Amino acid sequence: MLDRTPSEPLLSVDSLTVSFRTEHGLITAVDKVSFAIRPGELVSLVGESGSGKSLTSLAVMGLITDPNAILTGSIRYKGRELVGLSRHKLQAVRGNEIAMIFQDPMSAMTPVYTIGWQIAEQLRAHRKLTKKQARTRAIELLAEMGMPSPEVQVDRYPHQLSGGMRQRAMIAMALSCDPSLLIADEPTTALDVTVQAQILRLIEQLQRNHGSAVILVTHDMGVVAEVADRVMVMYAGRIVEEGPKEPVFMHPGHPYTEGLLRSIPPMHGVRPHRLIAIPGAPPSPANRPPGCRFSPRCAYRYEPCGIDPPLFRKEQQDIACYRAEALLEPVGVQRP
Amino acid sequence: MTSAPLIEAKNLSMHFKLGGRFSPGGPQVLRAVDDVSLTVQRGETLGLVGESGCGKSTLGRCLMRLYRPTGGTVLFEGRDITATGNRALRPLRPRMQMVFQDPASSLNPRRRVGDLVAEPLKVHPGPDGKAHSRAEIRARLVELMDLVGLQADHLDRYPHEFSGGQRQRIGIARALALNPALVVADESVSALDVSVQAQIVNLFMDLQDRLGITYVFIAHDLSVIRQMSRRTAVMYLGAVVETGSTDTIFAQPAHPYTGALISAVPVPDVSGARRERIILRGDVPSPLKPPPGCRFHTRCPKAQDRCRVEPPLLRPMTGGQLAACHYPLV
């Protein structure tokens, strides 16, 4: 599926840091995150609540508008720096080159206009189209999203649609200008499992047919296994593991990735008497432990973990864990 | 199944009237639960699974008698409680408790954990008919905190000081305060992060081993249902479409809806060949206007003319489970 030949990255994020000024001091939610997205690949950004995965994707979209937010680092799209770009210049990129879909379509649409009007507005903002042309294109897009009788649906308001149909309308809007990069933030989390399957298939088709790169933000390892080419696992504001899907799932290098995969109840085969849970809870951005942020919950913890681990390269995976480095020369760390 | 079931529903229905005379189109009837029969034996877990709007939560609330069902009967420990008044239900309440989805909204943020968990002990008298003394309550609180994996000094803190998983433990402690025989858990692990969800699933299972509690475990997550329950009932638009042993249902689903539901779950497995996927068309129809015949026929890949007219009844399948389908998968 994935073209392994090295190509110029579409998006490269370098040392992205998002902090917030609060009454309790500066809180760093996303901490020196770096990654690159190549054209046409589907990369999944996984993590639990508070991991910073949504903020990372909002930062790429230039949607962090909180006056107390401080954004540093670099976000380059097709070689062009997006950090510090004026609102006006950013708007030419946003929606046109990079589009985003959200968990809750109601928050991305206005309730007072029909979905057709909203898709047409987006089209007319970035393309030279007449109202009539834009409307025709909107109907085409809705049909492409698998919406039944699109010429009727185009005149309906968001609240008149079901959750799955609303999600389709939002995807149609996001894809109206053929973006090279689609950021999907938990696009199926609020949907029922049978509808989720439809939407995931739709996103896969779009990636294949339009050749768009997709960043799929999710907490569900099942969804990642289903659709992603590459995985980035975030924990407490950092990327802790990154690599192609197969090795990450078969040989997770970071204890957190391993724990996440093992804590999911199996759908087939023997039912374990107990699930292998990760003790404790993910830390809030305000109370992150020193050193390796996962160490208080980690079964493999040993002395070096008091110092923040860098990313170690192990074949195709990048792993922020001393164990990954130590595995080359095994150390006597016992599982409790 | 020789002993009497702990709780039993016979042809249970819960219809809500929406809108009055003056609403456009006149009043409508929402059939949230329609003619459901099921039994739960002592010490077992029955999993109730289905998509949003299938009536699983309403059914749970009917079993708890938080709603008065509009049809059928509910038997608790052999006693008909379908129309029992609130006052007469009170002595039974300690025997049946509920754990909710969102611990943040079911715990009063202005009260300490100790007060929240002690509330049922203050409201209900002990088994001897006398009110619990302060010393009894304190001792029970310490015992409960230990049972759910929290510390005694947590009793003096407020709910916001806890993580989601710990708050759910507090909700469980409160439900267990009066030693209930039945606990209805309504999406109790759905709002939790995966790594924490496993802890709470384990806690539910440990508590059952130790205390012999009977669970009705309501969830939309099939993997959680499979892990928790020995028997499962699958609901669609207010009706049970398949019920039986969890292992049979997951290995060999008979109803096409169950089959589609199970095949649609994304599995974190990259090793083998891709599983056969049944992708259903469209959305769940509105329970205000359920389709005639089989409720599932509008989305069913195997639907035939008969399904559009004749509603199928639950009947035994080759695997041993019951399914309501004219043309089952096995």
UniProtKB/TrEMBL annotation, chain A:
- Every copy of the ABC transporter domain together lies at 11-261
A biological process (GO) annotation for this entry?
A: transmembrane transport
Under InterPro entries, the record lists:
AAA+_ATPase (IPR003593), ABC_Ni/Peptide_Import (IPR050388), ABC_transporter-like_ATP-bd (IPR003439), ABC_transporter-like_CS (IPR017871), Oligopep_ABC_C (IPR013563), P-loop_NTPase (IPR027417)
CDD domains linked: ABC_NikE_OppD_transporters
Q: An example Gene Ontology cellular component term from the record?
A: plasma membrane
| Cited PROSITE patterns | ABC_TRANSPORTER_1, ABC_TRANSPORTER_2
Q: What is its main location?
A: membrane
Q: Which UniProt keywords apply?
A: ATP-binding, Cell membrane, Membrane, Nucleotide-binding, Transport
Any one GO molecular-function label of the UniProt entry: ATP hydrolysis activity
Membrane association type: Peripheral membrane protein
* Entry's localization field: Cell inner membrane
Q: Which PANTHER family match?
A: DIPEPTIDE TRANSPORT ATP-BINDING PROTEIN DPPD, OLIGOPEPTIDE TRANSPORT ATP-BINDING PROTEIN APPD
So what family is this one in?
Belongs to the ABC transporter superfamily.
Protein name as catalogued: ABC transporter ATP-binding protein
Show the taxonomic lineage.
Bacteria, Pseudomonadati, Pseudomonadota, Alphaproteobacteria, Hyphomicrobiales
UniProtKB/TrEMBL annotation, chain B:
Q: How does it sit in the membrane?
A: Peripheral membrane protein
Origin superkingdom: Bacteria
**Source organism:** Lichenifustis flavocetrariae
Q: Per the record, a Pfam family?
A: oligo_HPY
Record SUPFAM superfamilies: P-loop containing nucleoside triphosphate hydrolases
What name goes with this protein?
A: ABC transporter ATP-binding protein
Keyword list, A-Z: ATP-binding, Nucleotide-binding, Transport
Q: Where in the cell is it found?
A: Cell inner membrane
